[in-house]
Amino acid sequence: MENKESAKERFLGSFLGAVNDWDKHLAEAIDSDDDPNRKKVAQEILDEQENHGNIINSGLGRETWYSNDYFINCMILDFISYAKGDLDLVNELKLIYVGKLGNPGVDAEAINMDMESEGYLIKILWEMDLNIQLISSFVSYHAYGMQIEDENEIDKLTPGLVESFLHLIDKEALLKKANEDAHVGQTDEEDPSSLRNHIASELYEASMKFLLGHEIGHHFLKHTKSNGRNIVSKFIPTDVTINQLHLDEFAADNFGFDLTIFRGKKESNKNFLLAPLIVILMLALLDKTPEEPSQTHPSMRNRYLNLLSKVSEINEQVASELQQFINFVASWINDFLHGYWKTEWWK
Question: Is pLDDT at 232 greater than 70 in this prediction?
Answer without folding.
Answer: no
